[in-house]
Structure formats: structure tokens, C-alpha cells
Amino acid sequence: MKNIVILISGGGSNMAAIVKTAQQENWQQRYGARVAAVISNKADAKGLVFAKEHGIATEVLDHKQFDSREAFDAQLAEVIDRYEPALVVLAGFMRILTPGFVQHYAGRMVNIHPSLLPAFTGLHTHQRAIEAGCKFAGCTVHEVTAELDVGPILDQAVVPVLPDDTADTLAARVLTQEHIIYARAIAAWLEKH
Ligand code: GAR
Fold it and tell me: So what's the architecture of 2-192 in CATH?
């Protein structure tokens, strides 16, 4: 069985979309894959409720309990590895990862970013796209490499930026596409590996 471990920090709507698609498309039979665990660095992440309701193991590891990024990432890797993951999926996991952690999951960790990479790495992507006068925005699924929000692009989707958009209305439009492309990119990854 190919175990998928999903890391979240908040709402977990991408995680929920992946779980639903995995059920609808029967990833268990098709790819021998399942979402084995959802791990959050925040105890109040709403996505944990959804995961529990769907019978998925959940774990919380509060980064504030650790003295350094290295110590947190080492413990996080230990928790993740209990599930022997084929693939680690970052889904709104709002932590900068240490090089050692990234190296440990090289070739088997993916991320979704709410911009058309390589444009707008980092935070506040929607506000920055509006301020730059972009006519289009979107989202990107990519493999995780040492540099933040860089790494081979696996899938992208484009949405228009409308004249009266705010960061929130644009984010909502992009998020609907995230839910489609993240599950699609993971299915394609499972097909290949
Ligand atoms: C998503 O828009 C995701 O692309 C973004 O956080 C949101 C999480 O939503 N990720 C990043 O900004 C990573 N730097 P969700 O918790 O509802 O999936």
C-alpha cells in the first residue's frame, strides 16, 4: 500500500478535496494508495475534524513546543515516518522546512502554491498579483526542493483577475482550481510511481 501523509496548518480544504477524490476515483484499487494520516502543526486546524470524520489518523505537532526549526522538523519526520509514506503532501502547511527535512523526502514530497510559479513565491500572492496588475492568476503543484516554492512544476491552473477583485475574492477563485489540480497531480504521481 502506498501511504499518503498530508500536512496542514488550517482549513484543510485541499486535503479534503484530495480525500474526496481518492474515494471517488477509488485510489485504493486503482493505485494501491490511501491517505494514511493528516498531520497539523496547529491543534485547532479545522481540517483535523474532517480527517477524523473520515476515519483518517490525525496527529498534532505544535512547532511552538520546539526550540529550533531543526528540532521541530526532526520530530515531524519521525511522526511522518511512522506511516511509511510513499508521498508527503503539503496542503497549506505554513512552515519553512529545513534542508535536512526536504532532503529526507526528496522525490516524494509535493506542495501547492497559490500563484503561477515562478511568479509570486512566498506570502500574500493574491494581493501582490492584483497590485502588479496581473490579468491572470492561478495555482501550481510542484515537487518540493530546498528553495522555497521552487521545484519541478507538476500541474497549474489559470483564473482571470477581475477588475473589482480583492485578495479574498481572487483567493476563493484560485482555491476552487487548487482543489481540482492537487488531486489530479497526485493521481498522476501515483500512476507513475
Ligand atoms: C491554499 O490556498 C494553499 O495554496 C496555500 O494555503 C491555502 C491553504 O488552504 N498555501 C500556501 O500559501 C503555501 N505557501 P487549505 O488549508 O484550505 O487547503
Answer: 3-Layer(aba) Sandwich (3.40)
